[in-house]
Design goal:
The complex is a heterodimer of chains A (573) and B (491).
Chain A lengths: L2 H15 L5 E5 L1 H10 L2 H5 L3 E6 L8 E10 L3 H12 L3 E8 L5 H10 L5 E7 L4 E4 L2 E3 L15 H17 L5 E4 L4 H16 L14 E6 L14 H8 L2 E2 L2 E3 L12 E3 L6 H6 L4 H23 L4 H9 L1 H27 L2 H13 L3 H13 L5 H14 L6 H11 L3 H14 L15 H13 L11 H10 L10 E2 L10 E7 L4 H13 L4 E6 L5 H12 L2 H11 L9
Chain B lengths: L3 H8 L16 H11 L7 H17 L9 H20 L11 E3 L1 H35 L2 H4 L2 H11 L25 E2 L6 E2 L4 E5 H8 L2 H13 L6 E5 H18 L3 H31 L7 H27 L3 E4 L5 E4 L3 H21 L9 H47 L4 H41 L2 H23 L1
Antiparallel strand pairs in B: 2-3, 4-5, 6-7
């Protein structure tokens, strides 16, 4: 069930099956990302892979002494590129691997093009998704729905089906399927996955497990709150404030950044510090990074005294680690100091406190007052104001004074586009759309006692009061309390036992806060294995972009911008 | 958008870089000198302290320290919680090992589809090649070719290749245009098809010979070429046939030819394989030496180490050659030098190979066990000898002590027995048994000793000849024998 291992094993096999000799990895845009998530460049260098090339770059050098490990998604364009490549091969031999099922006619087409007989292998290895962590998968789809409705965009639908099927094949699971009943998109996806499994029954014929695995399909619309919140754990914070894209972070906008730090890689597979700290609080990371720096300084100092041969030998022996360490130190210190700069400059602690209270408390009057006060604060960014207003609009949807806030926002000069987002978010995930009790408002005895219990426990940390809905859903699933009416099974067979292997897919993207919640469940519940997959991993900015696309307010935006030409366009997100 | 993995490959720097300023210093010695000169006064960077200030503030706020309405107790509990999570973090790992995911192999299907097209092409190419060879043979065969008139030559060619009759061909086989006075009909000398002038070309006999790989014939043909207009001694062929010939030739040439890079790379892999084979032997030697053991002579260990180092050195030299490959530096007349670099991908490839070798050296050469100096070794040897001696003495003393005790007990028992059963035949028999056993024991242990001596001889010989596999198995034998011998002695 470890997705990183699953992808890595595929890549390792590809690279090793061709035997020894100089190799080039021939990739497309997506597979480049897929491979780079599991292998670092220096690691794959040890497998004699010296070169990476893209199939869609026609002006590659001819190098007949190389073996080309070709790993592509089986798209129409890629097949065309490959056929052209095989007609006049640039490399000595081709070992071709597709990340998903290839059409018979395409195999024939490629075979006819290969009159140089350079192709040695043609296989399907189902690494058709981005393994972010052992338990986290993304498909890097920025949006799923067609504009103006809650129906699938057809390309996104196909890609999602491909990605999920590949995931199941790579993990060797043929699951029972449950889905969020309120969501049309979830129902359609569930049906399509079932169809794909039934159509390829021979492929999905895995060894039966005592407790069958479960695929649970959810919809982001049921919890539009989580992606709106500011985050305080390292990984989530970096994504929220700087943005993580295939483990890469763009630091080019950081003031006074040196050239080699404009883009850094944060990978828990190759960076111990990140691995240990990605789920920790900002305060703890600050402490840990200080320790990291001190340790490094100690190393630097000890290596200065190269008096004896033994010292010198020790230095040289530790040299690779030493170099690696110095890179790690600069990287994390830069990232963390940039985070704290942003936190201070934009009063994020104040903003976050209000967000958390909006999401977890229920005092309308004080909430409204505090939102008003925040709008007065000139240091707060537009996007952060928007978060609180959007949260307010979702939380107090029926009783709210949204129009009052909107006029305040207008007075502050916030763009029309932003302001229209208030109705967009309600249209996307308002009360009429949701099926779960997101804010614990219902008067059922269970939710009452839950709130009471929360009150008794006291607030441990005002910045982490919010608990994402997915944690509750999974809790209920594990305890066998997830209601069938709300989350129906597809097909007649049901899970009678406590679930063991669960793959959760969230249409409309997941957040790093949710990956942490799932990580904690994996850690604390014995025998459970949950993988959380999403169409993408959102931060507030990308989430609002998806909301805009799904509700179709972007079209109106163009009109207003051309007439008013305001300073705060959507590009300032 | 550029991808990470490719960006990295552009920026990859290898070699002896200074970890602080990333300057390439070429060798280990220079690097160390540079490091102690330039970076000897690194104190706490002030930047770090600034950051620390901000952190403390943020930490206080996030952890709720000093926040109004929160008690100190709450904070303490919070910290405790964090400690727990941190501890657990290390224990939890994600569900490994696991079987590799499902795969599906289409190679056979692919080959089946390919064979059909390939077969067609192969048959065609082979036919053309055979025909070409025949024609060439006929032309070079005798001087008669020289005296042959054009029409006779044509007839001869026609006898080897069936020509399509002019009347049947209305359109050019290549461009499918109809023939006119301006677009005249020609025959391809290889496939016999009718084509127009534009769709054909003249294949010089010299290249024809290369295509057929008739190396011997080439000279004759060349001389033919010299004195005749080349058109006369060239064959008119259609583009299609020409392409087939060229492709076939290219493939054959690829198979035979090894570029300098491939040669160097082969050398690298061979050296690495050799070094990997020798390294475990050396490690064993060095270890035994560091204990002052005398199983290997000092000189032979030194020699092995030098041999290894030599291999590593060659590796480095070859890998440097790889990097320099394809670079040509020319000095112009005005004294300026111009360096022509190979293609971008070639450079990346060569740097990649260099990085691979550098990494290999870092893992193997830099961690190579050092050997004690001769004096150290001597003292180590003495120590070990002392140790062995002491151990032997201790064992001997223990043995003697045990013997004495046993003898005492024995005497005691004897005395008692004598008391109770005087002159019993049982006693006499037991005494005899002891006597017999002692006698029967000796020759066997002698045999083992002899065997040990033999094996030691073999071992020395094997070591001299450098047969390390044999040395290893012999050593195993020796150990077993010694164990056996010790057992027997104890008994």
């Amino acid at each position: 069930m470890n997705t990183i291992t699953a992808v890595k094993q595929y890549v390792t096999k590809m690279v090793e099956d061709s035997g020894s000799g100089m190799k080039v990895l021939l990739l497309d845009k997506e597979t480049t990302g897929i491979v780079s998530m599991v292998y670092s460049q220096s690691e794959i260098l040890q497998k004699e892979v010296y070169l990476f090339e893209r199939i869609d770059v026609p002006s590659r050098e001819t190098m007949k002494h190389l073996k080309a490990i070709t790993f592509l998604r089986p798209t129409k364009e890629n097949i065309e590129h490959l056929i052209k490549e095989l007609k006049s091969p640039k490399y000595g031999n081709y070992y071709i691997y597709f990340s998903n099922t290839v059409k018979q006619s395409d195999i024939k087409g490629m075979a006819e093009a290969d009159d140089h007989e350079t192709v040695k292998e043609l296989q399907e290895y189902y690494a058709d998704y981005f393994a972010v962590s052992p338990h986290v998968v993304s498909l890097n789809l920025p949006s799923c729905a067609r504009a103006g409705g809650s129906a699938w965009d057809i390309k996104a639908f196909d890609r999602t089906t491909d990605g999920l099927c590949a995931m199941l094949l790579s993990l060797r699971k043929s699951p029972l399927i449950r889905y969020h009943g309120f969501s049309d998109m979830a129902r359609r996806l569930a049906g399509n996955i079932r169809l794909a499994i039934d159509k390829n029954a021979t492929m999905f014929d895995f060894r039966r497990q005592d407790i069958p695995p479960l695929l649970l399909i959810l919809d982001r619309r049921d919890d539009p709150v989580t992606p709106l919140l500011n985050q305080w754990t390292y990984q989530a914070m970096v994504h929220e404030l700087l943005g993580i894209n295939n483990n890469r972070i763009d630091l080019s906008k950081v003031p006074g950044i040196s050239k080699d730090l404009q883009e850094v890689v944060l990978s828990s597979e190759h960076d111990d510090f990140y691995q240990k700290n990605k789920y920790l609080n900002f305060g703890e990371i600050a402490q840990n990074s200080k320790e990291l720096m001190e340790e490094f300084q100690k190393t630097v100092k000890s290596s200065q005294k190269l008096d004896s041969i033994a010292d010198m030998k020790a230095f040289v022996e530790n040299y690779p680690q030493f170099r690696k360490m110095s890179g790690t130190v600069t990287k994390h210190v830069t990232v963390i100091s940039e985070l704290s700069r942003l936190v201070n400059e934009y009063c994020l602690l104040d903003v976050s406190e209000l967000e958390q209270d909006l999401a977890a408390q229920s005092d309308h009057t004080s909430a409204l007052q505090r939102v008003r006060r925040l709008i007065e604060n000139p240091k707060v960014r537009d996007i952060d104001l928007m978060r609180t207003v959007l949260l307010y609009a979702l939380r107090y949807e029926k009783q709210s004074d949204v129009s009052g806030l909107l006029s305040l926002l207008a007075r502050r000069g916030i763009s029309d586009y932003y302001r229209r987002m208030v109705s967009a978010i309600v249209q996307y995930g308002g009360k009429n759309v949701r099926s779960s009790d997101l804010f614990g408002q219902s008067k059922t005895p269970m939710s009452l006692s839950r709130r009471l219990f929360k009150g008794l426990k006291g607030v441990e940390n005002i910045y982490t009061q919010h608990v994402p809905l997915i944690q509750e859903i999974l809790d209920n699933l594990i305890k066998g309390k997830l209601k069938e009416a709300q989350f129906p099974y597809l097909g007649p067979s049901q899970l009678r036992e406590r679930p063991q292997d669960v793959i959760v897919f969230m249409i409309g993207g997941i957040t790093y806060e949710e990956t942490l919640a799932v990580h904690n469940l994996n850690k604390s519940v014995p025998g459970i294995r949950i993988v959380l997959a999403g169409s993408t991993i959102h931060n507030c900015k990308s989430f609002l972009e998806e909301v805009v696309k799904a509700t179709g307010i972007a079209g109106e935006e163009k009109r207003t911008r051309s007439t008013s030409g305001q300073r705060h366009g959507p590009t300032t997100f | 958008m550029k991808s990470r993995i490719m960006d990295e490959s552009i920026e990859v720097q290898e070699g002896f870089l200074c970890p602080l300023c990333m300057k390439d210093l070429g060798t280990q010695k220079l690097l160390q000198a540079h490091f102690s000169d330039e970076h000897s006064n690194i104190e706490d960077p002030t930047k770090g302290q600034n950051i620390k200030g901000i952190f403390d503030k943020a930490k206080r706020k996030i952890l709720g320290k000093g926040e109004e309405g929160l008690e100190q107790g709450g904070y303490g509990r919070n910290e405790e919680l964090q400690m727990q999570t941190a501890g657990k973090e290390l224990d939890f790992s994600y569900w490994e090992p696991q079987e590799i995911g499902f795969t599906q192999d289409h190679t056979n299907e692919f080959r089946r589809s390919r064979t059909q097209t390939i077969d067609d092409v192969m048959i065609e190419t082979n036919t053309i090649l055979i025909r070409l060879e025949k024609i060439l043979n006929a032309l070079t065969d005798a001087d008669e070719s020289r005296s042959l008139s054009n029409s006779k030559k044509k007839a001869k060619e026609q006898s080897m290749v069936p020509w399509i009759s002019d009347d049947d061909a209305k359109l050019c086989f290549g461009c499918k245009k109809s023939f006119t006075i301006a677009r005249r009909k020609h025959h391809c000398r290889l496939c016999g098809q009718v084509i127009c002038g534009k769709c054909s070309e003249f294949l010089p006999l010299s290249s024809a010979a290369t295509f057929c790989e008739m190396d011997g014939a080439q000279d004759v043909i060349l001389s033919l070429d010299d004195d005749e207009a080349n058109q006369k001694n060239a064959l008119r062929v259609c583009y299609q046939c020409h392409d087939l010939l060229l492709k076939n030739y290219e493939i054959k040439r690829q198979k035979k030819k090894k570029t300098p890079l491939v040669q160097l790379y082969e050398k690298l892999t061979m050296l690495m394989a050799d070094a990997d084979l020798l390294l475990p032997d050396f490690n064993k030697m060095a270890e035994s030496l560091s204990f002052g053991d005398t199983r290997y002579t000092y000189q032979e260990v030194i020699a092995t180490r030098l041999k290894l180092l030599k291999m590593y050195e060659t590796l480095e030299i070859v890998s440097k050659k790889v990097v320099a490959l394809g670079q040509t530096t020319t000095t112009a007349e005005d004294g300026t030098t111009k360096t022509v670099m190979p293609g971008k991908s070639s450079q990346k490839l060569q740097r990649g190979i260099h990085a691979y070798v550098t990494n290999y050296l870092q893992n193997n050469m830099f961690t190579l066990k050092s050997i004690p100096s001769e004096e150290e070794y001597a003292s180590l040897q003495k120590e070990r000898a002392m140790l062995l001696k002491r151990r032997a003495e201790r064992e001997k003393a223990q043995q003697e002590k045990a013997m004495k005790e046993r003898a005492l007990v024995h005497q005691e028992v004897l005395r008692k027995e004598r008391h109770s059963l005087q002159n019993s035949p049982v006693i006499r028999r037991r005494e005899m048994n002891v006597e017999q056993r002692r006698r029967s024991f000796d020759p066997q242990s002698d045999a083992i000793l002899q065997q040990i001596d033999n094996v030691k001889d073999f071992l020395d010989k094997a070591r001299e000849n450098g047969q390390f596999d044999e040395v290893r198995s012999l050593e195993r034998n020796l150990n077993e024998l010694q164990l056996e011998y010790n057992k027997r002695i104890k008994r």
